[in-house]
Amino acid sequence: MHKICTDIVIETPINEVWDLLTDFDNFETWNPFITKIKGKLEIGSKLDVHLHPPGTKGVDITPVLTKIEPVNEFRWKGNLWVKGIFDGEHAFRLEELENGRTRLIQCERFKGILAPLILYVVGEKTRAGFEKMNASLKNECEKRNRQGLTQCVPSA
């Protein structure tokens, strides 16, 4: 099994980070990697997701939400083409830190017959996409936090 994991510390309380991270309708306003998510934040819900790793034209996937632990974690499982070829489980975890800070951990575990080959081709671009998303989430939340707003939601 192969995996890509990244993390970042955000100078914003966990509930505000969670609010932005789960506001799927507004991902396109701040997120350069996951530019679209349509669907409900409910276990078993099928999502319509557009991933746009840097240097690629992007890809559409339809994962299913498999875990939701409010304010702490959500994850989905999906695949390209047919199950067993290139499957992934993506997780977004938040850890509450002292002084109103939050750590975001974004990981994906890949498996399947073509996982090594596909990751050889797009693995570093995918990691770069995770890191760009993490930085954008951090910037948006901290900007809202500095402005003294009570919710970390995208600005117009």
Automatic annotation (TrEMBL):
This is SRPBCC domain-containing protein. Gene3D superfamilies: 3.30.530.20. Pfam families: Polyketide_cyc2. Transmembrane segments: none annotated. Coiled coil: none annotated. InterPro entries: Polyketide_cyclase/dehydratase, START-like_dom_sf. It comes from Methanolobus sediminis.
